[in-house]
Amino acid sequence: MRLEPRADSPLSLQLIAPLGAIAAALALCAVLVAWTGAPVLRAYGLLIEGALGSRFALTETLTRATPLILTGLAAAVAFRAKLWNIGAEGQLYMGALTAVILGGGMIDLPAGLLVPLVMLAAMAVGGATLLGPAVLKVRFGVDEVVTTLLLNFVVLLLVSMLLEGPLKDPMGMGWPQSAPVISAAELPKLIARTRLHAGLAIAVGLAILLWLIDTRTIWGYENRAVGANPRAAAFAGMPVTWIMLRTALLSGGLAGLAGAAEVCGLKGYLTLDLSPGFGYSGIVVAMLAQLHPLGVVGAAVFIAAIFVGADAMSRAMPIPNYIADVMVSTSLLCMLVAGLLVRYRLRRG
Amino acid sequence: MDIVATLLDTLISAAFWTAVLRIATPYVLGTLGELICERAGVLNLGIEGIMTLGAMAGWMTVYQGGGLWAGVLAAAACGALFGLLHAALTVPLGLSQHVTGIGVTLLGTSLSSFVYRLVLPQASTPPTIVPFQPLPLPGALAQTPLTYSALALVGGIAYVLYRTPVGLAVRMVGENPAAAEAQGLNVTALRVGAVMAGSALMALAGSFLTLSAFNAFFFNMVNGRGWICIALVVFASWRPGKALVGALLFAVFDALQVRLQQASGGVLPYQVFLMMPYLLSILALVLVARRASYPHALMVPYRKGER
């Protein structure tokens, strides 16, 4: 058996690949569910019902998908340019930090001005967080995977320090949490009496915008060229260093926005458990979407459905809800294989 | 003057060096494991998850009534198995080593949490086991058997890599797989084998945490140690001896940071001290990046007949 590159991979195959990967991952995880002693089909039924079975469940899934779309886009734009940003988790917290500082009443502006200001500032800070590792990469050749991963721990300690120090809410009963943002900094709800907020509209809008930039502008063309072959891109006269840095700013900015949207749209304040690994799940989202901005939206909804559904399932059955994380990581590995089968065909001999 | 005196007192105390060797052990084992993988041309970002899995598997074996060495073996076996997973995807299939490694880490971490919660659904305080005891030796030599194993492995692995045909073959597939193939070596088998062996060592590093350094399993106990090991491999320019030096140096700083934290009496928030290891690793990477000589075929998948 050997792998032979396909001359062209049809669109149908590219759409089937993630679905096949998801099916394979769910089948593999069924072994774990069976191991817990729970009836597999009923457990999966509960999972689907818990994620999509009611209007409330649907809005919960979309609420959970909001930060995942943004961190998924963050990973997708970076990976396209072969900038391995594994630090979206840290950039997300930097954005959230910016949101509680600027939105905490320090600036008195009407909501129409304060919300955009907070969001843009969070993007700037998130982008700046990735700019450090990106500069180290292009200037000194330091591998950005390790630096971005290590910065995640530094950022979390910084947040912990601020939440126990200057940012600590005096009304917080001693818990390490920030004071809530003022109402002018809150993102409006999309549907009354649900948790769904305008962050979803922003995230989907950005996905469409990025898709347009990617396919219709020179920027997008340059990004893809640098990702495919940086030396050829440089030879063609493209400013490779600048393209890398602006990709870093954009990627970190998207992750930072995810944090600000979670604070201003959902939680209202900042704690150390704001993100249950949205930064890392974003990588899975981006890979399931094969780095396509519009695909990211669909993949994020799927990953969110697993998390929300697994919570419902583990409330009804003695299955630890960590099964969701196992399913998500298995999906990533299955997707890598499926992606290979899109690009190559198996040949005998 | 006061600080200098305290520093000197610390540096000549046996307790300090006992701590240094204890802190260094998981870094030594993890760095050696990553080093073997990278020497064969495969970056293994699964290290963080494999360490977590090793910590959980080792602890769980002992908690279920197995012996301590059975725990160590179970951890190594789990590590080798996850190494096989990483290698199967990255070597014959040639998938992105970055993304596969992240996937292996996510799977190892989540599977550890899942199994631990499944076995202990309502454990609010983590149950404990009786860990390895330090050998009855004087001063800083009073270490557990795993620390001595780690130190012995440094010499053993250096010997295998530089003085045996197998070591030469592993280094060769990491430098020039086509040339290795031309010599009649099986590139795929060598790379898969190296990744499995390296991953077993990573899991040992994790099991040291639950079977020697502490006596319980916590969800986030590996806490970035795996990523620091990856930085240490670069710092050590892919040589086992230098890896030991790097891990010890790092442990000295880490042990000092804890003592400074106690001595500073809350002048600075404790988080500032906890950030040091991570920032130090980044600094180390920046310092050596210019003259780092990566194995030439690192992260380059090899397919027979493809150029």
Automatic annotation (TrEMBL), chain A:
Pfam families recorded: BPD_transp_2 (PF02653)
Keyword Transmembrane helix recorded: yes
GO cellular component, one term: plasma membrane
Annotated InterPro entries: ABC_transp_permease (IPR001851)
Organism: Enhydrobacter aerosaccus
Compartments in which it is found: Cell membrane
Transmembrane segments: 12-36, 91-107, 113-136, 145-163, 196-213, 234-258, 278-310, 322-342
Protein name: Nucleoside ABC transporter membrane protein
Keyword Magnesium on entry: no
Main location: membrane
UniProtKB/TrEMBL annotation, chain B:
Keywords linked to the UniProt accession: Cell membrane, Membrane, Sugar transport, Transmembrane, Transmembrane helix, Transport
Domain of life: Bacteria
Source organism: Enhydrobacter aerosaccus
Matches recorded under CDD domains: TM_PBP1_transp_TpRbsC_like
GO cellular component term, pick one: plasma membrane
Membrane topology: Multi-pass membrane protein
Main subcellular localisation: membrane
Name of the protein in its database record: Simple sugar transport system permease protein
GO molecular function annotations of the record: transmembrane transporter activity
Keyword field contains Transmembrane: yes
Keyword Transcription assigned: no
